[in-house]
UniProtKB/TrEMBL annotation:
Alphabetized Pfam families for the sequence: HhH-GPD (PF00730), NUDIX_4 (PF14815)
Cofactor note (record): Binds 1 [4Fe-4S] cluster.
Taxonomic lineage from the root: Bacteria, Bacillati, Bacillota, Bacilli, Lactobacillales
Keyword set, alphabetical order: 4Fe-4S, DNA damage, DNA repair, Glycosidase, Hydrolase, Iron, Iron-sulfur, Metal-binding
SUPFAM superfamilies in UniProt: DNA-glycosylase, Nudix
Keyword Thylakoid carried by entry: no
Protein name: Adenine DNA glycosylase
Reaction(s) catalysed by this chain's protein: Hydrolyzes free adenine bases from 7,8-dihydro-8-oxoguanine:adenine mismatched double-stranded DNA, leaving an apurinic site
EC number annotated for this UniProt entry: 3.2.2.31
InterPro entries in the cross-refs: A/G_AdeGlyc_MutY (IPR005760), DNA_glycosylase (IPR011257), HhH-GPD_domain (IPR003265), HhH_base_excis_C (IPR023170), MIG/MutY (IPR044298), MutY_C (IPR029119), NUDIX_hydrolase-like_dom_sf (IPR015797)
Broadest EC class assigned to this enzyme: hydrolase
Family: Belongs to the Nth/MutY family.
Length: 351
């Protein structure tokens, strides 16, 4: 670990650079904890440039934590549509409910209290507590792992849960106690620029003099991270059932992947005939599905990849309430809360 003088020099160098070069992001216009929470939840698994317009639309629709708490869930999911990882949106609304009603609108200020909110883990709690409430708390995300692994040549594998404590111990000694929020955001900006995962520019980094990996020519060796296992392939038939009333959409279960979102019916079957039989068992309707010879639609989640074959059938409308379904005219499809994977299916089905 550095001595006190070097730590002080690092803080000064980093924050001077940040003051001159920080990114102009809409959620940095103030230190409102609601703005910090929404932006940080959106930024999980999603690039900054993608998040900006979503954040702006979300804030226009749900300007306060009370507005979000009171909104119908389908409106929240629709506003989130395209960002993916929809459990984030549901947990965000649950957290808003906790703040608005369990806490009477008063925000918890410490990281330990914030982690009691739905969907708020150590990183997001650290970000909110430091940025909104000036708590001296690290915000350890992928950027922080990478920056500090390179600064100190930390050899521990960041894929291992216990490694977080190693980084937490290091960062707590280095974080600026007077400006912890700015310090954490400076690390974020550093990690997305000079110390990025791909094509870093350590030579011109404002903290090059403190970067041990740069001095020893080992920048790309850090952070140490074991590779993930490839996603498990899950084959489906996606059933494009069309009647004069519209296309058949099924609302997914209230729990699990893509909960409450609307999709074409998906069935697991060995062939087209078996897919038709599976649908008949679900609906009581016999349909003749045709294979339109459209390309396989693939969509990868964190640990699995859906590979979907489109099957098409035309029929007269029938009661789909037992399927938790509805007939949707083509002009009304965009009104539904649908996941990105369904958008891929629509693109091929309507081509």
């Amino acid at each position: 670990m550095w001595n006190k003088d070097k730590i002080q020099a690092f803080r000064q160098t980093l924050l001077s650079w940040y003051d001159q070069n920080k990114r102009d992001l809409p959620w940095r216009k103030d230190h409102d904890p609601y703005h910090v929470m929404v932006s940080e939840i959106m930024l999980q698994q999603t690039q900054v440039n993608t998040v900006i317009p979503y954040y702006q639309r979300f804030m226009a629709q749900f300007p306060t934590v009370q507005d979000l708490a009171d909104a119908p869930e389908d409106q929240v999911l629709k506003a989130w549509e395209g960002l993916g990882y929809y459990s984030r949106a549901r947990n965000l609304q649950k957290a808003a409910n906790q703040i608005a009603y369990d806490h009477a609108g008063v925000w918890p200020e410490t990281a330990s209290e914030l982690t009691k909110l739905a969907g708020i883990g150590p990183y997001t709690a650290g970000a909110i507590s430091s940025i909104a409430f000036n708590q001296v708390e690290p915000a350890i995300d992928g950027n922080a792992f990478r920056v500090f692994a390179r600064l100190f040549c930390i050899e521990e594998d960041i894929a291992q849960p216990q490694t977080r404590k190693v980084f937490d111990d290091v960062i707590r000694q280095v974080i600026d106690p007077k400006r912890p929020g700015d310090f954490n955001q400076a690390i974020m900006d550093l990690g997305s620029s000079y110390m990025s995962a791909k094509d870093p520019d350590p030579e011109h980094s404002p903290v090059a003099d403190f970067d041990e990996s740069f001095k020893t020519g080992r920048v790309l060796e850090f952070p140490v991270k074991t590779k993930k296992k490839p996603p498990v392939v899950v084959p489906y038939y996606a059933l494009v059932v069309q009647s004069p009333a519209g296309y058949l959409f099924i609302q997914r279960p209230k729990t699990g992947m893509l909960a409450n979102l609307w999709m074409f019916p998906l069935v697991e079957a060995s062939d087209v005939e078996a897919a038709g039989q599976a649908f008949e068992q679900l609906s009581g309707q016999t349909l003749i599905f045709t294979d339109p010879q459209k390309p396989l639609v693939k969509h990868t989640f964190t640990h699995r990849q859906w590979q979907m074959t489109l099957l098409v059938a035309e029929c007269q409308p029938f009661d789909v309430t037992q399927l938790n379904g509805q007939w949707v005219p083509r002009t009304k499809i965009n009104d539904l809360a649908i996941p990105t994977v369904q958008k891929k299916l629509l693109k091929e089905a309507l081509a």
